[in-house]
Amino acid sequence: MEMILNTVRMVDHDQAREHALGDEKSLEQNLAIGILNPSDFKKLNLTRSLHINLSNKNGQVIVATKEDENIPQGTLLMPVSIWSNQLTNVENDEITYKNIPVNVEATRDPITTYKDLLNSIKNIK
Amino acid sequence: MERIPCTGCSLLCDDIIVRSDGLFIDEVIGACLKGKERFDQLTSNNRLLNPMIRENGVLEKSSWEDALNKTINIIKNSSNPLLYGFSNVNCEAQLKAIELARKIDGFIDSNSTICQGKVLNMAKDTGITLTTITEVINKADLIVLWGANAAESIPRLLNKVLFSRGKFRMTGREIKTLIIIDPVKIASFNVMGVRDLALQIQPNKDLELIRMLKEECCVADSIPSEGVAGIDNYDLKRLLLHLSEAENGVVIVGQGILQPQSESTIIRELLELIQMINLKQQKGRISFIMMGGHFNMAGFDHIALSTCGKNENLKFKNNELVESNDNIVSKINKEDFDCSIIVGTDPISHLPHNLSQKLASKPIIAIDNRKSATTLIADVVLPTAITGIETGGIVYRLDHVPIELKTILKPPNNLPSDEDLLNQILDKLNKT
């Protein structure tokens, strides 16, 4: 399903806080999430145990979901983080953090790990 | 007990009370979640306490001498270094970083360039009326949050500007109208009262709304009966009335208004709209505040402007500032650099993946006080003291007012401040 991705900074999902205080596990729990309207949650046939596979021309990532009726239908919110960065893009030498088209589908695959993402940037040991 | 400014965000609240014996902080009173996080960093497991260098692909603890030598080696072998970050360090460190960039013929820029600096750049052509938090507290009768989720990004901002009782606004909240324009029903909507206006705009329709308001400023009754951008005709009339009748209004702009596609047009047209309203205004004016997040994002603009005459994208050649059409994004995108010095920021967590890959393909020297995605992939990691707690200095608040920070604790392991560390690097470069 096509949705619009908006990356946001929320006080409970702040990357600086997680990096400062958390470990890799807490980073994944708090930042590897997509927040969407309950009606979109239903349309995607999601359950709490399922994840969402997000993809667009910039990349692909799998994250957990959270329902929030305050999010407009068709919009997906993600905290600004290394997970949402898989989908953000550069246009005219500017970074686009909002209104990014993204394809969303339910999946049983596990969440993309922090380590996997770092390794995709640089092969670290 | 001591009252100190908090460096949890760019509001730099100066009413935080700490009790400390100079070695530990026993109590922090008055800090919000972000402020508390800042003080918690002192004892966090993710605190960087020792320099590290990457050997055979593994990042390992090292001596200061080895880490500094490797830093100098990387810089000496570079002909096109990139310096980036500086929104979480004091102005003294920013000044030193510009000196370093000049010395090594580098390209230097701050986070502001992909955030609130964009508004200032647009304002070079259109002009802008800025205001301060104090003036908003004392005089404002209208506060507009446009694409700005103040309740979560700058948690105490609304406490200060909306709920406070100012010198000329003794009735406080009762006389201050809050308007929120945002596609998402954000947390700030929760403080709305009956006189306030919550406008849930359709995603990416800000430009339509701004253009309609500009048209209405020129030709009365041009508001379409069906409304614009998901906002009905009645609410649009109320919005325009508030904007044109306010004695002292402030528009607080956040990332939401900066980021949509064709963003430069949106910022420019918003600035033009406010100018048009101010020209029509009989009894007041509307001003701007840019809601940057990091505690000294505004500082780099001031330091760069005062030392180099421009606030961003500083390129040096033969130790002189030269013209450059590049910005930090284009430099990384074109891979027009051969090493990077990242100070007090985490680009790997906020740049798109393809830019992160390009940044990581060249040696990275990371200077920070905590672990981050950037320090994890860096080639050299140099830890520093936490600004605002373990080192003082001057920083600029989000309304561009300078604030002096205090030192209340000694840093562990005698960690240097960002300024001291950059100075050490400069000294070593001068000697080699």
Gist?
The complex is a heterodimer of chains A (125) and B (432). With 125 residues, chain A is α+β, with helices and mostly antiparallel strands.
Biggest interface between chains:
A-B, 47 and 58 residues
Tell me the fraction of residues in β-strands of chain B, as a range.
Answer: 15-25%
Q: What is the number of beta strands of chain A?
A: 8
Global mean pLDDT of chain A: 90
Main beta-sheet strand count, sense and barrel state of chain B: 9 strands, mixed
Uncertain residue segments of chain B: none
Q: What count of helical segments of chain A does DSSP give?
A: 4
Instruction: Predict the CATH topology of the largest domain in chain B.
Output: Rossmann fold
Spatial strand arrangement across the major sheet of chain B: 5-4-17-16-15-6-7-13-14
| Structural class designation of chain B | alpha/beta
Distance between the terminal alpha carbons of chain A, to the nearest Å? 37 Å
What is the name of the CATH class of the largest domain in chain B? Answer: Alpha Beta
CATH topology of chain A: Barwin-like endoglucanases
The rough form of chain B would be described as: globular
What share of the residues of chain A does DSSP label as strand, in percent?
35-45%
Q: Radius of gyration of chain B from the CA trace?
A: 23 Å
Oligomer: heterodimer
Count up the domains of chain B: 2
Describe the protein in words.
- The complex is a heterodimer of chains A (125) and B (432).
- With 125 residues, chain A is α+β, with helices and mostly antiparallel strands.
- Helix content of chain A is 23%, strand content 36%.
- Chain A contains four helices and eight strands.
- The mean pLDDT of chain A is 90.
- Chain B has helices at residues 33-40, 64-76, 91-103, 117-126, 133-139, 150-153, 157-161, 206-218, 233-245, 255-258, 263-280, 297-308, 328-333, 347-350, 353-360, 373-377, 418-431, and strands spanning 2-4, 16-20, 25-29, 52-55, 58-61, 81-85, 107-110, 142-146, 177-182, 197-200, 248-253, 285-290, 314-317, 320-322, 339-343, 364-368, 380-383, 393-396, 402-405.
- In chain B, helix 3 (91-103) crosses helix 12.
- The longest helix of chain B is centred in the middle third of the chain and has 18 residues, at 263-280.
- Chain B has 432 residues and is of the alpha/beta class.
- In chain B, strand 16, helix 16 and strand 17 form a beta-alpha-beta unit.
- Chain B has two domains: 50-111 and 296-431, Rossmann fold (3-Layer(aba) Sandwich), CATH 3.40.50.740; 117-290, Dimethylsulfoxide Reductase, domain 2 (3-Layer(aba) Sandwich).
- Helices cover 36% and strands 20% of the residues of chain B.
- Chain B has a nine-stranded mixed sheet. Chain B has a five-stranded parallel sheet with strand order 10-9-8-11-12, with helices on both faces. A three-stranded antiparallel sheet of chain B has the order 1-2-3, with no helix packed on it.
- The radius of gyration of chain B is 23 Å and the shape is globular.
- The chains are: A alpha+beta (125), B alpha/beta (432).
- The interface between A and B is large, with 47 and 58 residues.
